[in-house]
């Protein structure tokens, strides 16, 4: 299985301040989701995802790590055509009609 | 960290977004069934703890390494290529016939993840966190690790400043085993201190 987590460096997950790697179930979901996409669509090559993760963290260093992870994954799947642009927005709106 | 599960709040925007992403990717067949669960389980049980198991097996086979490990866990762990940023201090505590060490984090869920991977779910549960301090012997017995009354139990409370790794006692009958074979004997739970080997 591809090891998606950097031990150190700009893309390494949080591990100081007593923080858990995963503080909420969605974080574990989005972690596994990225692993699945890397495995099934990129032949286990994590680099395209990793570069986007580094960029997402650099774009907003204050943002929680797993939010940047989700942003990176969304960027990966839309820029490589796995999902059409806007599909996630539409799906979110569909889940939450009162806010659409 | 909030422990209040009695007032469910609606999913946050990020939760909704991740759920939508998962739905879309799954619909397109990019997420094999059970994959996410398998990945999480692997990180919890195999990938992370393997690093710790390497550290333990080295300590069992190399007395000088063991001495360094017990003196400065962070540096000795880094020798094997595992570790985190500066100041992320790992203290290694040794189990013997007379002393059993167990690790807990009463405040949050500190965990030496570079050597143990993702923490198991029970590690962050309030009952584990409080009972391991209050009644470690009873809780260890319930978790399948009964200890004789004359074994001293030392409970180590992790914090952001100090993480603990238990060096389990080397099991008997393993004299002829290679370091690689020994690695396979070391379990995550033994390095948290809720099991003996």
Based on the model shown, name its key terms.
heterodimer, A: 100 residues, mainly alpha, 54% helix, B: 197 residues, alpha/beta, Nitrile Hydratase, Chain A, two-stranded parallel sheet, 4 strands, 12% strand, globular, disordered N terminus
Overall average residue pLDDT of chain B: 86
Which regions of chain B have little confidence, pLDDT < 50, spanning 5+ residues? 1-5
Assign an overall shape of chain B. globular
CATH architecture of chain B: Alpha-Beta Complex
Described by strand count, sense and barrel closure, the largest sheet of chain A is: none
What's the CATH C level of chain B? Alpha Beta
Please identify which CATH superfamily of chain B we are dealing with: Nitrile hydratase alpha /Thiocyanate hydrolase gamma
Q: How do the strands of the widest beta sheet of chain B line up side by side?
A: 1-4
Estimate nothing, just give the exact number of structural domains of chain B: 1
N/C terminus separation of chain B = 33 Å
Q: Output the number of helix runs of chain B.
A: 9
What is the distance, rounded to the nearest whole angstrom, between the alpha carbons of the first and last residues of chain A?
38 Å
Question: What is the count of structural domains of chain A?
Answer: 1
Order of helices and strands of chain B: HHHHEEHHHEEHH
Number of strands of chain A: 0
Structural class of chain B: alpha/beta
């Amino acid at each position: 299985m591809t090891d998606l987590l950097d031990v150190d460096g700009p893309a390494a997950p949080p591990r100081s301040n007593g923080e858990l790697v995963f503080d909420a179930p969605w974080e574990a979901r989005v972690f596994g989701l990225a692993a699945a996409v890397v495995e099934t669509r990129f032949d286990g090559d994590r680099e395209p995802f990793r570069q986007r993760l580094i960029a997402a963290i650099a774009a907003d260093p204050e943002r929680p790590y797993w939010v940047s992870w989700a942003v990176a994954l969304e960027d990966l799947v839309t820029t490589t055509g796995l999902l059409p642009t806007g599909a996630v927005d539409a799906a979110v709106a569909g889940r939450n009609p009162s806010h659409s | 960290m909030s422990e209040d599960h009695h007032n469910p709040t609606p999913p946050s925007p990020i939760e909704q977004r991740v759920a939508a992403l998962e739905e879309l990717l799954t619909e397109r067949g990019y997420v094999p069934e059970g994959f996410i669960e398998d990945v999480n389980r692997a990180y919890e049980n195999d990938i992370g703890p393997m690093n710790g198991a390497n550290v333990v097996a080295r300590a069992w086979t190399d007395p000088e390494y063991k001495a360094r490990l017990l003196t400065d866990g962070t540096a000795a762990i880094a020798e094997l290529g595992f570790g985190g940023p500066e100041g992320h201090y790992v203290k290694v505590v040794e189990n013997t016939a007379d002393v059993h060490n167990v690790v807990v984090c009463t405040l949050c869920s500190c965990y030496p993840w570079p050597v143990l991977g993702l923490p198991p779910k029970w590690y962050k549960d309030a009952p584990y966190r409080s009972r391991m301090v209050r009644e470690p012997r009873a809780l260890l017995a319930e978790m399948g690790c009964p200890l004789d009354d004359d074994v001293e139990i030392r409970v180590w409370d992790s914090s952001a400043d100090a993480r603990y790794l238990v060096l389990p006692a080397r099991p008997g009958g393993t004299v002829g085993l290679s370091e690689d074979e020994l690695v396979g004997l070391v379990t995550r739970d033994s390095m948290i201190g809720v099991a003996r080997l």
